[in-house]
Amino acid sequence: MKKNYVYFIAPLAGLAVFVGIYWQYAASYDNRMAEMHRKEVEVAQARLNEDAKNREIAAKAAYAAQEKRKADKKIKDAKDAADKDAREQATQTMRKAQNDAGKLTTRVKALNKDIDAEKKEIAKLEEEKKNLIAEQAFQLRYVKEAEAHVTGLLATLDQVAVADKKWEDAVKEAARVAAAAKK
User: Fold this and answer.
1) Alpha carbon distance 7, 3 (integer Å)
2) What single DSSP character describes residue 155?
3) Where are the domains of the chain?
4) Can you tell me the distance from the alpha carbon of 115 to that of 109, in angstroms, rounded to the nearest whole number?
5) Cα 8 to Cα 4, 13, 20, distances in angstroms
6) How far apart are the first and last CA of the chain?
7) What is the DSSP string of 24-42?
8) Tens digits of per-residue pLDDT, 69-125?
9) Which tens digit of pLDDT belongs to each residue from 131-171?
10) Consecutive H or E run containing 182
11) pTM beyond 0.85
């Protein structure tokens, strides 16, 4: 029979341990549930506080963005007005430049005609210059040839003078020889 008690003792011991553990769990269950609920409420309250803080930051950022947009709009309006004035000024300047360009084009055409006339005059002067240079070269060549002729003539005159002197000397010698032969 000893064996029959073993089958009852192990389950009764297990039941006693279970009852002790359950009793302890059941006694602290309400406290644990209250603590868990309190933590959930704290987390929810922290979320709500954080959301409120984020909303306040978002509202301030939205207000700042609105103020920035207003300032940007004022700057843009001022810039647009300045651009419009600049475009108007540029249009006036362009019209004036076109008028001036027309006047200058007319003046350029007149000056081109004057330039063509002056070019023709220059061409005539160049042709005359060529002729004068050719004439000068001819005259220089002629003067050189004349100087060469003069030099040749002077040399010939010197030879003639030497020959005349020799002739005179020969005539004197012949007269002397004839006078000496006569004597």
Assistant:
1) 7
2) H
3) 1-129
4) 10
5) 7, 9, 18
6) 224
7) HHHHHHHHHHHHHHHHHHH
8) 999 999 999 999 999 999 999 999 999 999 999 999 999 999 999 999 999 999 999
9) 999 999 999 999 999 998 999 888 898 899 999 899 999 88
10) helix 2-182
11) no
Distance CA 115, CA 121 (A): 10
Instruction: Record the tokens describing residue 82, joined without a space.
Output: 């300045």
**Two structure tokens written together for 2:** 């000893």
Locate 110 and state its tokens.
């007149």
Q: What is the DSSP string of 112-128?
A: HHHHHHHHHHHHHHHHH
- Token pair of 69, please? 């947009």
**At 163, which amino acid appears?**
A
CA 182 – CA 174 distance, rounded (Å):
12
How far apart CA 37 and CA 143 sit, in angstroms, is 139
